[in-house]
Specification:
Rossmann fold; globular
Length: 123
């Protein structure tokens, strides 16, 4: 069993990571962090992953970091199935009244395809 979360450097992504760390501690299970392919060169990505690893080590949670393929929704669902996850944590953006009628396509795919419960958080 594990908690799965995607790592994005957005406020929504940071809130999801913070919540996932808390959930992993409370449930005493490992945290699996899926990194996005993102932009930038290899050195930038390596520095971001090193920073993430340091943050997770300081948080005192057992963890692993998995490189994403570029489709974060697909990656989260796949990793959740592979790790027998008990929870996926995702961050959602605040939306306008019209935007609230349509959930983001990535979030919708995760909710519909997830093999486990999904916890959606906002910053």
């Amino acid at each position: 069993m594990a908690i799965v979360v995607g790592h994005l450097s957005t406020p929504e992504g940071q809130e999801a990571l913070t919540t996932a760390v808390t959930e992993a501690r409370q449930r005493d299970v490992p945290l699996v962090v899926v990194t996005s392919a993102g932009r930038g060169d290899d050195a930038d990505r390596a520095a971001a992953i090193a920073s993430l690893e340091s943050h997770l080590a300081n948080a005192g949670v057992q963890h692993s970091v998995v490189a994403g393929t570029g489709d974060l929704a697909e990656d989260l669902v796949r990793v959740a199935a592979e790790s027998d996850a008990e929870l996926i944590v995702i961050g959602l953006r605040r939306r306008s009244p019209v935007g609230k009628l349509i959930l983001g396509s990535g979030a919708q795919r995760i909710l519909l395809e997830s093999p486990c419960p999904v916890l959606a958080v906002k910053p």
